Structure formats: C-alpha cells, structure tokens
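Revision sheet: structure tokens.
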Amino acid sequence: MAYLAPKDGFFPLSAMWIDEDNGLWSSTPSPPYPKTGLWPSDAVRFQAPPSPRDPQGWCVLNTEGELIVATSTAGSSNYDENVAAFQVVSWNLEELNSNVIYVLGTDSSLWLETQPKRDAQPVQVDGNVAAFQAMDADHAFVLGSDGNLWLANSPWGFLPPRDRQPVAADVMSFSAADDISVYVLDRNGELTLREAPSWSPGPNIATGVLAFTFASNGVYWITEVNGVSELYLSTPISPSPATAWKQNGPIDANVAAIACNTSDPNGLLVLGTDGNLWYEPGTVQGRTLVASDVWTHPLPAAGPNPGL
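Predicted:
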C-alpha cells in the first residue's frame, strides 16, 4: 500500500501511484491514458478505504508524518501525526465509529484507532514494531524490530499481547494471504510459505529475493543478476499444500517494484527503474503503459520490505 497499488474493486486495469513530486494520481491504461490527480503533493503512503459507499475516499500519509483522511463527501481532515505506516481495516461513512485504522507511530508503537478519535481512545497493540499486516480488528501479523514475526490476537492493550503465536525468526519482510498462511522472506533472501498451526517453513520458493508479491498463479519476485534487478515467477508444482515450486523467468528486467490486482489475476503492475509503470499480462509482450515519472525507490538490501 505504499508506492504503487492496484485499485481492487474499481477497474481491473487501474492503478494509484505517486509521482516524483510526491503527488498522488490514479491512472487507467487505456487511450489516451488518462490520469486523475487525487492529492497535489507530499504523499508518501496511501490506501483507498474499502468502501462501496464512497469509492473516492482514501487515506494519505504525507512527508510530515501526518495521516489525513479524505472523502469525496466530507473533504479532508487530519487524523493523526508522527505516523510511520497505517492500514485501514474497516470503513463505513454511515457509521463513523466503525472506521478502524491500525497506525504505526514513528516511535515503533502500533495502535488500533477508531475514527473519530474523540469517541474512542486508541489502544496499543504492540511495541518495537518494524512492520505489520492486519487481517481485521482482532488479528494482525507483527514484525518486531528484532526480526521476529508474530501473529497477534486481541484483546489489545497488553505489552506484549497476551495472545500471540511465533511465526518466524530472522525475517526481512512478509506478506500474509490470510490468518493461517503467510509468505516469509528471511534475511538470507530465502522465500517460503508458512502455514498454521506449526508455522514451519515450506519448500523453498526462491532464493536471493529482494521483494515479492503473490498472485493466484504463484509468487512474483525480484532478484539482482549481474547488477540488474530481474523479475521472476515461481509457481507451485503440486496443489495446496505445495511440495515444490517451479521458477519461471526472467519475465522482465530493471524492475523497481511490483503489485498484483486481485480483480485481474492475470495482470501485474510493474514499475521500472526508469519511472515507467506498466500493466503486464504475465509477460513483457503485450504490455501497456499506465504512467510515466512514477516515484522509484531503491530495492532494500536489508530490513522490512517497504511494501506496495
């Protein structure tokens, strides 16, 4: 939910992205490649709240660490400050108290907050958090600054959480498919799938991975070959649970970031190191330009995946 993202539930071939001036835009890859300005500048992270009542609503984290909530009906308002990351898990314009957002502060404290905050005080979920992914208001995967990954469960307000399960150690980044399965990239660049209740690593999906995203047909991942960032796809050889993975590729080169659209499982958004954002139907052949001058960022050598 950071630098480029498919707009699931809107149009299969659409994307939201941030340009080199930190402006937030929405694009549709169809002639004449129209784009719509959503936020003029200073956007560093964003998420479109999952609300059919207000498809033009979104949350923006600006360069000052301020979290801003904006809707097409109520305008924009400052929601929080000193924010490093956030995730919207519930959004309902008719019942504002059900608007639930996880907020990671710049002090590495993770909170569950309800809008408007005057009606419900935030409750702390955990501390010393490097990254997180919430499944709902009661369950969240939490990566500690020590590299340990946990599945934390409510009730919140206890440090550490009273109910949490160890998932993996020495983790660089992760992406959960649901609350019983999570893809884990360790600090050695090895990517595996871990599933409850044991959370033991499954067969190797790929090695030397810098960033990844999963789709219905497998896992797309980026690695570096002779100084060039290349894109590959690993597909399970057997039905779930996969006993082995087949590596396909390279699909593309000079790739800065990738994102899948669950509304269009055969499609992939690929951001090149030159700032061009492409929609690719699984291959470079037949790809469509979505936008240019999209903000590019270096692939992480270590630490949490900045995410998409």
